[in-house]
Automatic annotation (TrEMBL), chain A:
Keywords: Ligase. This is AMP-dependent synthetase and ligase. The keyword Glycosyltransferase does not apply. Pfam families: AMP-binding. InterPro entries: AMP-dep_synth/lig_dom, ANL_N_sf, CapK_Type1_Caps_Biosynth. PANTHER family: CAPSULAR POLYSACCHARIDE BIOSYNTHESIS PROTEIN. It comes from Kibdelosporangium persicum. It comes from the Bacteria. One of its GO terms (molecular function) is ligase activity. Residues 227-332 form the AMP-dependent synthetase/ligase domain.
TrEMBL record, chain B:
This is Phosphohydrolase. It comes from the Bacteria. The lineage of its organism: Bacteria, Bacillati, Actinomycetota, Actinomycetes, Pseudonocardiales.
Length: 456, 179
């Protein structure tokens, strides 16, 4: 672990607070054995975090029955009508969520004001319903790949909703995870200078192993351990993002997973095909946001919206609904996160909505990764920039690299620290590339395109 | 219709007898009712006025003086008066020291308006909406409820902030996909 990396959150094991019994309320003998196997593996990564599923039996039961919810389809959402649950959600939110309290409930969704990440960033505590159980509250930072990184409250059960949803999508590709405590079901792969690494087990998957790893050699005792550890885990599924999965594909791994799942950024056709050939399995491109969970999966040339209790609108710059086929901002309404029910939440991503045996996103403009070049010619990914800038508490920023390699960083003026402090954080990653920092008012731009470059 | 100013002036002139610890509330109230030609209290209806909280008792006596004013006689309704005395006044007495309904202009206006509302008589020169709006601005119970709701909201917001900053929350739970 590099000790000079300017991200205080990543001090090894400094972010743990629970006992194993609290991390895994349903831990069985088999699950315990799997955990020990992963933790004590001679080629294991340098774990710097511990993380469980925090699921009770009641949660697992509800997650199992969520398969029925997914099978039910679009819950009354048709090409011409909103699903009826939207109306109930509006009523519930206006009754229980502080930021809506005292305001009169609009008669229809189209009259509900839109919200976005800036709202959430500045008023997250006003977005948690009065009747939500705070004992069940956990938080995540959004990736910050678009707009400012925000702290998002949710429940462990909502986090684990990914599993039945992933199973649903895998089934569309003829793949089923077997689970069970003798198997590692899923390895979540990152490729960053530093990232959390931990071993876990899933109560939902019968005690199956779950591992989060970082491809960066600094996260391992020996870089060759990555291959021996992963081939020994034999995971059913790898999940990651295009950058980390591309790095994974470079390793001389012999194990072939049942499927590879990509998220967080757009997966190009070229990279997708390369991964399919390399791992000889389906490669699935998922799109979602931390605040609402998984939203859609790529089905040939469209992104098919998942049949969750999730409603998607496409809005133009003035907040008006776009006609089918017209590109605008993807805006979600979803009550499935009990700590953060969302009404008309602007995602910052763009697509058109069409109806092809169900709602689909066309031309999804996901969060394409942007690379920045150092003076020695090496590249830095925009996610790493987010990691050094986020701890400074910046509300929003825009970073551009010009053709002459010079960086221009425009930071939202409210609450911004001294430009010298920002410059030092940027220099810690980018070295001696000339950088100009300005403090500006970015509030007009509800979702600034955070990263742009004339070079990549 | 009754002129508000007449009632507030009357309250400001409440005689000392109505502050007496020795006065019998049931007897005074019976007098107010019978003076308006309505039946007084019987043994059963007088029962609830025998052992009273001191502040409620004081406020009922002040209100008896108010309702004994001439213009109220015509609109006097026994059931409404009893509801006013036993339903409206106890929470009000719990929030406001009763003497303030004599000494403080806003509290005099509040009690006069509440009495008119209870007996369904309009303040002179006001529409129903104006009367309701004006009462809302001097309504102690409503102000207390708003303050309590504000306090509860602030406490909840602090609890949510604390929960979001807790290390337990930040350890989080394993995630299975990248978004």
């Amino acid at each position: 672990m590099r000790d000079d990396y300017p991200v205080p959150d990543y001090v090894p094991m400094a972010a743990t607070a629970l006992t194993d019994a609290e991390r895994w309320p349903l831990l069985t003998e088999g699950g315990r054995a799997m955990l020990t196997r992963l933790r004590e593996h001679p080629a294991a990564p340098l774990y710097n975090h511990a993380c469980g599923d925090r699921l009770t039996q009641a949660s697992v039961d509800r997650l199992k029955s969520y398969q029925d919810t997914l099978r039910d389809g679009y819950h009354g959402w048709t090409s011409t009508e909103e699903p009826p649950w939207v109306d109930e959600l509006i009523t519930r939110v206006y009754r229980t969520v502080p930021r809506y309290r005292g305001k009169s409930r609009p008669a229809k969704l189209a009259d509900v004001p839109v919200t976005d990440r800036l709202d959430l960033l500045s008023r997250a505590f006003e977005c948690v319903p009065d009747d939500a159980d705070l004992d069940d509250l956990i938080v995540y930072q959004t990736s910050g790949s678009r707009g400012p990184a925000a702290t998002v409250p949710m429940s462990p059960e909502f986090t684990a909703l990914d599993l039945p949803v992933i199973e649903y999508v895998l089934a569309r590709h003829g793949v089923a995870m077997a689970g069970g405590s003798s198997r590692v079901s899923l390895v979540n792969v990152y490729a960053q200078p530093v990232a959390y690494q931990f071993a876990s087990v899933s109560g939902y998957l019968g005690g199956a192993g779950i591992v989060k790893i970082n491809m960066d050699p600094s996260g391992w005792r020996n870089p060759a351990d990555r291959v021996s550890f992963l081939d020994s885990c034999r995971p059913e599924v790898y999940t990651g993002n295009p950058i980390s999965l591309a790095a994974l594909a470079e390793l001389p791994l012999t194990h072939k997973p049942k499927a590879v799942i990509s998220g967080a950024m757009s997966l190009s056709d070229t990279v997708g095909r390369h991964l399919e050939e390399r791992f000889a399995c389906p490669v699935i491109d998922l799109y979602g946001i931390t605040e609402a969970g998984l939203i859609s999966w790529r089905d040939h040339d469209v992104h098919r919206i998942l049949p969750r209790r999730l409603y998607v609108e496409i809005l133009d710059e003035d907040g008006r609904r776009c006609e089918p086929g017209v590109t605008g901002e993807i805006t979600v309404t979803c009550g499935e996160n009990p700590l953060l029910p969302l009404l008309r939440y602007r995602t910052g991503d763009h697509a058109a909505l069409e109806w092809r045996h169900g709602p689909v996103l066309v031309g999804l403009d996901g969060r394409a990764p942007v690379r920045y070049q150092r003076t020695d010619g090496s590249w830095v990914n925009s996610i790493e920039i987010t990691h050094v800038l986020s701890p400074l508490g910046l509300v929003a920023w825009r970073l551009h690299q010009g053709e002459d390699r010079a960086l221009t960083l425009s930071v939202h003026e409210t609450g911004a620290p001294d430009p010298d402090v920002i410059a030092r954080a940027l220099t810690s990653l980018m070295g001696d590339v000339p950088a100009r920092i300005t403090l500006d008012d970015l509030a007009q731009d509800t979702k600034p395109q955070r990263y742009t470059s004339a070079l990549s | 219709m009754i002129a508000l100013s007449r009632l507030t002036r009357r309250l400001s002139e409440t005689p000392n007898d109505f502050f007496s610890e020795h006065a019998s509330v049931a007897a005074v109230l019976s007098d107010v009712l019978t003076a308006a030609g309505r039946p007084g209290l019987n043994a059963q209806s007088a029962e609830r006025f025998h052992s009273m909280d001191a502040r409620w008792r004081q406020l009922v006596l002040i209100s008896c003086w108010l309702l004994a004013d001439e213009p109220f006689r015509e609109v006097m309704d026994r059931a409404r008066v009893l509801e006013f005395m036993t339903g409206t006044l106890p929470p009000l007495a719990g929030l406001v020291e009763p003497r303030r309904f004599v000494t403080d202009p806003d509290r005099r206006e509040e009690l006069a308006r509440l009495a008119m509302l209870a007996l369904e008589v309009m303040p002179e020169g006001e529409t129903a909406k104006q009367a309701a709006d004006r009462l809302a601005t001097v309504d102690s119970v409503r102000r207390y409820e708003v303050l309590e709701a504000t306090k509860a909201a602030e406490q909840r917001a602090a609890a949510v902030r604390k929960a979001m900053e807790a290390e337990r929350a930040r350890e989080a739970a394993a995630r299975y996909s990248q978004v």
